[in-house]
Design goal:
The structure is a single chain. This protein is α/β, with parallel strands linked by helices. The protein has two domains: about 5-130 and about 285-295, Rossmann fold, CATH 3.40.50.1370; about 130-280, Rossmann fold, CATH 3.40.50.1370. The chain is about 40% helix and about 15% strand. It has twelve helices and nine strands. The strands form two sheets. A five-stranded parallel β-sheet has the order 7-6-5-8-9. A four-stranded parallel β-sheet has the order 2-1-3-4, sandwiched between helices. Helix 2 (about 55-65) links the parallel strand 1 and strand 2 (about 70). It starts with 11 loop residues before the first helix and ends with a helix. The site of phosphoric acid mono(formamide)ester has 8 residues, from helix 2.
Length: about 300
């Protein structure tokens, strides 16, 4: 049995296999030839934070493959009344075929997976967002082919998405430059483990020169709402603007996991512009995760 808690739970071949299957599933879905490869399978989805894309892509994905998904939040389960996550894992394991969890600490997801007897999927923690990386990489591969050897730039906060990009850089063999202010660095252990694949700078302009892909995310993630104002000041020099995009390679792409704040981490002209692939990136959550579910459940 396999879990997907971290990008590095997959080998590079497995990661590439899942995103290529994701592209195939997208084509099948577009041409109306998708097959129900997971009949009667059930995914339990625990969400301790808000979600639009992750919830809908998993739920629609399970339905499209002939299965079903159940949304579980602390508000309407015993989790909110103090039933331990580990007890919940033992019980749900006997009723569903896989469990996705969006929560705060990565350790909670890891503890849950230790006692679960079915595959567990990390649907975002404060540390990582691996499902998003499957969709981002599928989108890049669909547009430009393999990302190995390419130059990717992360602009902004050293958050969960940034950490996931660092893991994926070492896994798939691209170079990542993280451009952000001091004090908002990515996870030190993750940086160290990927030392040959990642560099860090405080200059967004320097980082973006000749980039093949520029990626950013919100300045205040879920759980950091009270820091919104102080972060707007700290990150003021890290908006992805048309001027910054102009420094990148001519065919550079722009990605953002969404939800986005126009006029903060990205200008409207960039996110709604010709180099942005954010809508396709979001849409690919559906197909990449269907491929992940097949990988874990078949
Ligand atoms: N990108 C992403 O995970 O979006 P949601 O928070 O809407 O799921
Ligand atoms: N970094 C963001 C990603 C949301 C999908 C957050 O954690 O809120």
């Amino acid at each position: 049995m396999r879990h997907f808690l971290n990008e590095l739970d997959l080998t590079a071949d497995e990661f590439r296999g899942i995103i290529l299957r994701g592209s195939e599933l997208r084509k099948q879905w577009e041409s109306g030839t998708l097959e129900a490869t997971l009949p009667h399978r059930v995914l339990g989805m625990i969400f301790e934070k808000s979600s639009t894309r992750t919830r809908v892509s998993f739920e629609a994905g399970m339905t499209q493959l002939g299965g079903h998904a159940i949304y579980l939040s602390p508000d309407n389960t015993q989790l909110g009344r103090g039933e331990p996550l580990a007890d919940t894992a033992k019980v749900l394991s006997q009723m569903v075929d896989a469990i996705s969890i969006r929560t705060f600490s990565q350790e909670s997801v890891e503890r849950f997976a230790e006692v679960s007897t079915v595959p567990v999927i990390n649907a975002l923690t404060d540390l990582l967002h691996p499902c998003q990386l499957l969709a981002d990489m599928q989108t890049y591969f669909d547009h430009r082919g393999d990302i190995a050897g390419k130059k990717v730039v992360w602009v902004g906060d050293g958050n969960n998405m940034c950490n996931s990009y660092i893991n994926t850089a070492s896994l798939l063999g691209f170079h990542l430059t993280v451009a952000g202010p001091d004090g908002f660095e990515p996870d030190a252990q993750i940086m160290e483990a990927a030392a040959g694949s990642v560099t860090r700078t405080t200059s967004a302009a320097e980082a973006c020169a000749d980039a093949d892909l520029i990626v950013t995310d919100v300045w205040a993630s879920m759980g950091q709402e009270e820091e919104q104002k102080s972060r707007e000041i700290a990150f003021a020099d890290y908006e992805v603007t048309p001027e910054l995009m102009a420094l990148a390679s001519e065919d550079a792409l722009f990605m953002h996991c969404l939800p986005a704040h126009r006029g903060e981490e990205v200008s409207a002209d960039v996110i709604d512009g010709a180099q942005s692939v954010v809508w396709e990136e979001a849409g690919n959550r559906l197909h990449a995760q269907k491929a992940l579910l097949e990988f874990l459940l078949q």
